[in-house]
Design brief:
This protein is of the alpha/beta class and 325 residues long. Helix 5 runs parallel beside helix 6, helix 6 packs across helix 8 and helix 9 packs parallel to helix 10. The N and C termini lie far apart (44 Å). The relative contact order is 0.13. The C terminus is likely disordered.
Length: 325
């Protein structure tokens, strides 16, 4: 692949073979060399997987086919995905399965806490599938899980990566009120224009409202969001998204390359180069984020402890920042 400069001055690599704008050619699934990673099968990886299966637990690392699985599992870190492995939505970018979910497991909060304790985690990330079938979207179950982990690991930082709860602010408040919670993360995922294609059951404004709610009503929490690039977004649209996130109280932003799980999913339009990530990174810091994590393999929970530490240090050294709500 040869690097090109698009009409907005962003250096990138085109993803589609010539004449295949919808990515139907198998060549469209080939990755540039800098995006290829082996999924390890070492002792630490096997140990984490075995521990998850013992508690009938799931990780987003496995279900979403995260490229960093080997690295994280080998360091005994994982993002717990609660409320089952089946999602009630079918976003065109996501590898997580879509089906009618089963009932919630009342033992899951304690099982997550036990697994986190066995792993000796200092930063625990808890996410979930969308459970639009539940009256509260699973908010109470997520709160119980956070508090069970906090009870087992009182010194650990706990981060949630939540769905939008269909805009139910009572559900948002329920999770944000969980004892022991440090970080509230909800991913914006992509620019507003691409929502109908990428997140057809979600709403850009709804996600912003969730983030603003937490920033305004729970100022002790660090607010975080993330997005994918390579879906056809324009540079100025990403710049505008950064502005929106900061205006809605987000402290940490993550940005990484969209990788197509299969030919049934949305095609990759472009692979961004490191120079492109540097452009976005510089702009995000200029807008006022306390920590920016941008790169090809960055995911919202990747190096989560490092991101929180950086944001905390930034916040303590710049109490008068005009970007704080």
């Amino acid at each position: 692949m040869s690097e090109i400069i698009n009409d907005q001055g962003l250096p990138l690599l085109p993803a589609h073979p010539a004449g295949d704008r919808f990515g139907r050619d198998r060549e469209a699934l080939r990755l540039p060399s800098f995006l290829k990673r082996q999924v390890g099968k070492g002792q630490q990886v096997r140990a984490v997987r075995q521990l998850m299966r013992q508690g009938d637990l799931h990780t987003v690392c496995e279900e979403a086919r995260c490229p960093n699985l080997s690295e994280c599992f080998s360091q005994k870190t994982a993002t717990f995905m609660i409320m089952g492995k089946d999602c009630t939505r079918a976003c065109s970018f996501c590898a997580v399965g879509t089906a009618r979910p089963g009932p919630l497991d009342p033992l899951e909060p304690e099982n997550v806490a036990l697994a986190a304790q066995k792993l000796g985690l200092k930063h625990v990330v808890i996410t979930s599938v969308n459970r639009d079938d539940l009256p509260d979207g699973g908010a109470l179950h997520m709160k119980k899980t956070v508090e069970a982990v906090h009870k087992a690991l009182p010194e650990a930082d706990i981060e949630v990566l939540t769905p939008d709860f269909l805009g139910d602010m009572d559900a948002v408040d329920l999770v944000a009120n969980a004892q022991g919670l440090s970080v509230f993360n909800h991913n914006i995922e992509t620019v507003s224009r691409l929502y109908p294609q990428v997140r057809h059951k979600a709403r850009y404004e709804r996600s912003l409202a969730v983030l603003k709610r937490v920033a305004e009503h729970f100022p002790h929490l660090t607010v975080k969001s993330g997005l994918m690039v390579g879906l056809g977004e324009k540079k100025e649209e990403v710049f505008s998204l950064f502005e929106d996130l900061r205006q809605h109280g987000v402290n940490i932003v993550t940005l990484g390359q969209y990788l197509r799980p299969s030919r049934k999913h949305a095609p990759v339009v472009a692979y961004l180069t490191e120079e492109a990530y540097e452009i976005y990174r510089a702009r995000a810091y200029l807008v006022g984020f306390e920590h920016v994590f941008a790169g090809p393999l960055v995911r919202s929970s990747y190096h989560a402890a490092e991101a929180l530490s950086s944001a905390q240090q930034h916040g303590s050294s710049d109490q008068s920042s005009p970007f704080k709500l």
